[in-house]
Each structure stands twice: as C-alpha cells, then as structure tokens.
Amino acid sequence: MSATMDTAAHLSSAARTDGPPAILMDKVNKWYGALHVLRDINLSVAQGERVVVCGPSGSGKSTMIRCINRLEQHQEGRIVVDNIELTDDLRSLDAIRREVGMVFQSFNLFPHLTILENCTLAPIWVRRMPKKEAEALAMEYLTRVKIPEQANKYPGQLSGGQQQRVAIARALCMKPKIMLFDEPTSALDPEMIKEVLDTMVMLADTGMTMICVTHEMGFARQVADRVVFMDRGEIVESGVPEQLFNDPKTERLKTFLSQILRGH
Amino acid sequence: MSDTADPRLLRAPPKKGIRLSWTDERLRGIVWQLLVVGLVGGIIWWLVSNTAHNLEVRRIATGWGFLNREAGLPIGESLIDYNPTNTYSRALLVGVLNTLKVAVVGIILATILGTLIGIARLSKNWLLSRLAATYIEVIRDLPLLLQLLFWYVILQGLPAPRQSLNPMTGVFLSNRGLKLPWVQWQDAHSFALLGLVAGIVATFLYARSARAKRMTDGQPRKVWPVGLGLILGLPLLIWAALGAPWQGDIPALRGFNFQGGLTVTPEYFALLLGLVTYTAGFIAEIVRAGIQSVPQGQWEAAEALGLQRGRIMRQIVLPQALRVIIPPMTSQYLNLTKNSSLAVAIGYQDIVSISNTTLNQTGQAIEGIAIIMAVYLCISLSISLFMNWYNARIALVER
C-alpha cells in the first residue's frame, strides 16, 4: 500500500476532523466467488468531507461504495458508518440506510410513481412523516434541484438529466448525513452532465459528507477534498486533487490519467 | 397531441380517389376482401345446407323441445336438488354448476399454489428453488389427461369404506371419497356467513382508513388485531345471538358406505387436484417471470432509501410485476376452465359429460354440442371480462 495517508491539512473548511469519522473502512475484503474484488480497503471519511473515487472500470469503485450501505456485503474487515458497525443485524442495516442516501448511474426512479411520490415514499413509510409534511419537504428539495414544475409528471416524461436530479432530491428527502454517488453522470448525454454536476456542487456547498465515483475530473478538482484512485480492487493512491492529478506517484495512475485525458 | 392552434397544422389530408387499375393498392385490397367474404360465406352456406339435408334424410328431429322431457339420467353429485325424473334442462344446469364448482375452486387454489411455487423458485434457498424448478418441469412436461388418470387411480387405490383411513374423528378417506363432519345447516349459519362477509368488508374499510389516517399523522396502526376481531368475532357474535345452534352432521359407516357429513367425491377430488397442480406449474412460471421483469435497480433504490422488503414488494415490485402477470394469468384461468372438460375421462359429471349423455339419449347432437359451446363461451367471456377490468384497474400510468 503506497497510499499517502490523509492529513487534516487539505480538508475543506466544512470537514470536521475532530469528531468520529462519518465512514470508516478497516481492512475490508470482498470476493465474488474466487474473484478478489476488494483488497484490504482502508478508508476514513471525516464528517463533511467530499471524496471522489476514480479508477478504471472493474477496479472495485462501485463495489466499495455499495458496501457502505450494504447493497453488497463485505466478507472480511470492518465498516463503521455514522458510529454504527455494519453487521448482519437488520436493525443496524435499517439505521444505516436511513442515514445514507444513494444516487445510481441508471437513476432507478420508480416508473409507476410521480416525481412527487418518488420523493415522498420513503419519508412517509420509513420516517413516518405525515403526507402533507413529506410533500412540502419534497417540493423544497425539488425546488433546490430546480425542477419543482415537474412534480406531478412521471419519470418517463423527464430527460435523463432531470431524472438524475429527481433521484438526488429523492435521496435528500430522507435527510441523510452521507450521500453516495455511483457514476451519476455516466448514463447521461453530454449536454445534461453539467446540470447534474451543478446540483452536486450545490450539495457539496451545504457541507454534506459525499463519496462520489466519477470520471469527471473537473468536478473532482472543484469540490473534492480528496481523490482516491483504485485499481484491481485496491486503493493505489489518494490525496488532494491537484497533487494527485499533477504529480501521480504510481505508474498505474499515470496510465489511467493519460487514458482519461485522451478521451477528453 | 399538441395544443397548438396554428391553422396550417389543422389542414385536412388530401382526398385520394381509386384508380380502376390492378396496380392500385386500395382497389386490390377491396378485391381481396370481397374474395375472402365470398369464400367464408360459401363455406358456411355449404355446411348449413348439407347438415339440414342430412338431418332430413335421417329423420332426426331438431329443436329444443327435448329440454323439457324427463332426463332419466342419474347424476352422482349435484349442488342443487336433482333426481333422474327431472328434465334435461335441470340435468344440464347441474352439469354447468359442477363445471363452475371445479373451475372456480380450481382457479383460486391454482393461483395460491402457483404463486407460492413461483416465489419458491426465486428463493435464495438452493433446495427450495431446485424443488420448485423440478416440480414445474415435471408438471409442465406431462399431459394433463395422464395426470388426471394418475390422481384418479391413486384415489381409487384407497381402501374400501370399512377399512377407510381415519386421521381425525369424523374424517374418513376411502375409495368413496373424503368424508368430513358438517353441521345441519340452519338460518343462523347463513346469517353467520353473511357476518363473515361483512367482517371481511369492514376489515378492508378499516385498513383503508388506517392508511388514510397514517397519511395525516404519520403514525402506523396495526390492522390485523382489528381485522381478526371483525372477521372472526362478527360471525361468532351473530351465531351466538341467534341461539348458537349446533347439530353436528357426522359421517358414520352404515352398511357398505357412509351416511351423513360432507362428501368430496373421488372424481371431483382427482379432477380438482389434477387441474390445480397442473395449472399451478404454469402460473408459477408466470409469477416468476413477472417478478423478474422488475429490474434489480428498483430493489436497490428502494433498499437504499431504507424501505423494508415487504413494503418494497407491495409498493414497488408488485405493481410493476402485475401488469406482466395478469394477461398470461387470464389465459391460464381460461385453460383451467376448458381443461375441466377432461372430467369426462374420469367420470366427473360436468357439462360435457352430461351433454354427451343427453345427446346420446336424444340423438340431438347439434343442440348438445351447441350447449357445450355456449356454456364454455359464457364462462370464458366472463373470466376475460373480469380480468380485463382488473387489468385496466391496476394499469400503471407512466406518462
């Protein structure tokens, strides 16, 4: 492990290093059958910190963040989210999923519910919120992602960029402490990427703890406190964006960056 | 679609005349249509005139007069009072009711069994899913007639009434069928039954109001204690208020057979068992396909929001799965109903069996076949209409 250990020096002002970390991954390992997809992952994310995870496809980025809200189960090591350790105990799982919001590459909006219903479903059934209150909350977040006028439409009537912004609003309606983004712009047409990234920048400005798997280097430079580079199931390098992008230490990161830049 | 009022967009399409030429598409279409109509009309005319001629030559009477004659045909089981001195029309009515009895009960049981097996097929438990898969393959690959005969032979292989199996007091299983204890039916029981229906409706209404209240204050309410009280308590209360009549009708061996009690005949039991197990195999696959048609991402998104699995099933997966499930399910219900005509092979007296006997005795084959066709057409259309209504009711709006 050649990863540079994080220091408090390059954390954003929003990040608080004094309290316990929002997310702690300690020697996490995972296999798909015989395939070793996560190798000794050590990652600590402070509250309010914004982390961007990048790396070639198949490097385990998505698997890693999906372990954080247990859409995937790790087989070895410890994951502690918001002071709750992830175990097979269903109560701890429910507690964590209430605090961790997730945005997917393919939006995964519920096609048979309106935009508003998509947003109010979880607050009503999980947070036990009265419907009126949940709707007011949903409208507030839909306004923040700049699509309140679409509230009564169905996901199929919206563009990809609008759908992804709804997905962000839907996750925010649960008032999560942590947001996970799994390649949120990869399924979007180029002209829609910006509107989603703008929404994420706005969210970052509110001090939300965020982990974002993305290849958008501009976004990483703009908001990330730290960039983590993964390859073949391990964290190869991590550090502040400038340092990582301008002065890659490892051959693997150099190769990756040259491929990414060639593509742009 | 568009609500624009631009007059240029409202211009009518140009009128096209027909050219009298074989290369004109529309003229050609009309000629083909006329040819097909003529052909079909000719075939029908030939069939009708040929039949009328043959009937006349063989001096076979036509018409529905036979319906009011004495049937003189014995029927083993009937939902209404019947004896061989009744008319053919009453005998046929018994047949229709027997068909409905096996079709309705069969559809309900096949849906329950098929859904359970379909869900078991998707289970993460290796043994359970393998067992379900094996069941589906075996059941679907064997002809239904063979399966019906199999069940019938098994039931015939049971001991005679004197040596019948007696798993519980008052319950006897022999080659004469299944005998169950029953009560001597009185008005109080009918009212209690009405109470049960009222209890179910009241529970449904309570569940709806509990949900509506939850929407205003967010607090969940337990529905099942109230529901249990309504569904069990209401009929019991009515029954008790009417004097709690209870005169058992316990089957007892008299001579070579049982008297009293409720009887499930081996013919009915074999037919029901065969139809239910067979159709459940197909329904299981339909249910599995329906649930699998909902993308994994829907589960993940709902789980990531913290929703419980049961809630996800009810509010996210099932609404999307049902629209894939309902249309093929309708076909299976129709299949089950029509397959019940195989009853004739194991001696269950359904409408086909009784119509057959009728047409043998009266010689009026055309009327007999017409009755069978009309009965199945009516039942099938009713099922289709109901399922189409249900399908439209649960249809999802997505845009």
From TrEMBL, chain A:
It holds the Pfam family ABC_tran. Belongs to the ABC transporter superfamily. The lineage of its organism: Bacteria, Pseudomonadati, Pseudomonadota, Alphaproteobacteria, Acetobacterales. It comes from Teichococcus oryzae. Keywords: ATP-binding, Nucleotide-binding, Transport. Signal peptide: none annotated. PROSITE patterns: ABC_TRANSPORTER_1 (PS00211), ABC_TRANSPORTER_2 (PS50893). SMART domains: AAA. Residues 23-257 form the ABC transporter domain. GO terms for molecular function: ABC-type amino acid transporter activity; ATP binding; ATP hydrolysis activity. This is Amino acid ABC transporter ATP-binding protein.
From TrEMBL, chain B:
It is found in: Cell inner membrane; Cell membrane. PROSITE patterns: ABC_TM1. It comes from the Bacteria. One of its GO terms (molecular function) is transmembrane transporter activity. GO terms for biological process: amino acid transport. It is a multi-pass membrane protein. The chain crosses the membrane at residues 29-48, 102-122, 188-207, 228-248, 268-287, 369-390. Signal peptide: none annotated. Keywords: Amino-acid transport, Cell membrane, Membrane, Transmembrane, Transmembrane helix, Transport. One of its GO terms (cellular component) is ATP-binding cassette (ABC) transporter complex. SUPFAM superfamilies: MetI-like. InterPro entries: AA_ABC_transptr_permease_3TM (IPR010065), ArtM/GltK/GlnP/TcyL/YhdX-like (IPR043429), MetI-like (IPR000515), MetI-like_sf (IPR035906). The keyword Phosphoprotein does not apply. Residues 96-387 form the ABC transmembrane type-1 domain. Belongs to the binding-protein-dependent transport system permease family. HisMQ subfamily. This is Amino acid ABC transporter permease.
